[in-house]
Amino acid sequence: MTTRVEQVMGLPISLDLRDEGDFAEVVDDVFAWFRDVDARFSPFKDDSEVSRYDRGELAPEELSDDLIEVLELCAYYEQLSGGAFRARLPGRGLDPCAVVKGWAVQRAADMLKAEGATTFCLNAGGDVVTAGEPEPGRPWRVGVRHPEQPLAVCAVLESRNGAIATSAAYERGSHILDGRSGTPATGLMSVTVVAGDLVTADALATAAFAMGPEGITWAADRPGCEILIVDDRRRVHRTAGLALAS
Q: Which residues form a coiled coil (predicted)?
């Protein structure tokens, strides 16, 4: 059993690994990976690959395979959301963070699995990847933070071998913009998406929040996903397959 918590990429990242055995090396690699992602992909660091590309100091053919993959994901979700999700807005620099976090955490989970880890919960500021069951017959329990009460949860979800991501305004205010207008997203207080991987869950949660009320049906219609959404009238919307903990 291994636990670790570090402040990386501007948020706490925690790992609860329940497998027996020596996983010290891969755990070190996972957190080194997060530090590397922060150094290369942060739009807030002048010397990051993202910032250098945004300033025109790197040509497209000079980009790393990782950044090419991230930019392709950004383009895919921009098209899927009809432009509500955008990594680049007029008057603003390139900011792929809405894809980078989920992509980086999912990659870290894949690193753990490749080294034989079967039972863990990897949590990056409330966006979670789980594997296995911490106890036989009992899935991981993941709390979804209440959009108005920072010390409370509005739901507890069950998760086995999947991912959960939440987008809301409680951490950084109105930081999610509707890419179609460039203005802060309105109409929703919290969007939680459950999917098979965190790239999908995180990007869809951000896109749905950016879309506002129309994002409720849009997210619910995504194949293989379940949703829990609180709108600005405090109404709760959830899909029938959402696994609520008893």
A: none
Q: Which residue is it, tokens 């919290």?
A: 190
With a threshold of 0.70, does the pTM exceed it? Answer: yes
**Which pLDDT tens digit goes with each residue over 160-205?**
999 999 998 765 445 789 999 999 999 999 999 999 999 999 999 9
Instruction: Name the residue among 138, 98, 105 with its Cα closest to residue 122.
Output: 105
Q: Residue 195: beta bridge partners?
A: 163
* DSSP state, residue 59: -
pLDDT tens across 56-68, in order? 999 999 999 999 9
Contacts of 79 (CB under 8 A, 6+ apart): none
How many CA atoms within 13 Å lie on the side-chain side of 188?
30
∠ CA 68-172-198, nearest 5°, is: 40
